[in-house]
Amino acid sequence: MYRGVLGAIIALLVCVSHSAIIPQQHTGIQSYSVSGRLFCGTQPASGIRVKLVDDDFGSDPDDDLDAGYTDQNGYFKLSGDTYEMTTIDPHLKIYHDCNDGFTPCQRRWKFELPNHYITNGKVPQKALDIGTWNLEAIMPDESHDCIH
């Protein structure tokens, strides 16, 4: 009898430990929300193009979840949803000319966003606040983009 109980306890512990290390998987309609504030030096960065996308691989094009511009105080809030068979890969793209000189096109920053803010369904249940960023910084993987 003790063997049966002990076996059940071990099986339960294995299941619990595996569920703690395997990230939650999402399928179907998934949503995301992100907000923040952008500066160029000491001035709020107004009119900056921001996009929330599901970064897809291969021949599947990225899904635009939402896009907009920062307001006169540099604030933005994006929120959107898409249908995917696997967990979405949310990214924030920021296009700007801060500290860019005469370089053609705009600087593009691209951030991978944490998955634990993904919500199943069309309405995000939580929002990621990225805080305040100064666009004068130079990101290691930034690029220039003329078409966005």
TrEMBL record:
Cellular location of this protein? Secreted
The stretch of residues making up the signal peptide is 1-19
Concerning Pfam families, the annotation shows: TTR-52
What GO cellular component entries does it have?
cell surface; extracellular region
Q: Which UniProt keywords apply?
A: Secreted, Signal
The record's similarity note reads: Belongs to the nematode transthyretin-like family.
Q: What is this protein called?
A: Transthyretin-like family protein
The organism's lineage? Eukaryota, Metazoa, Ecdysozoa, Nematoda, Chromadorea
> Gene name?
Bma-ttr-35
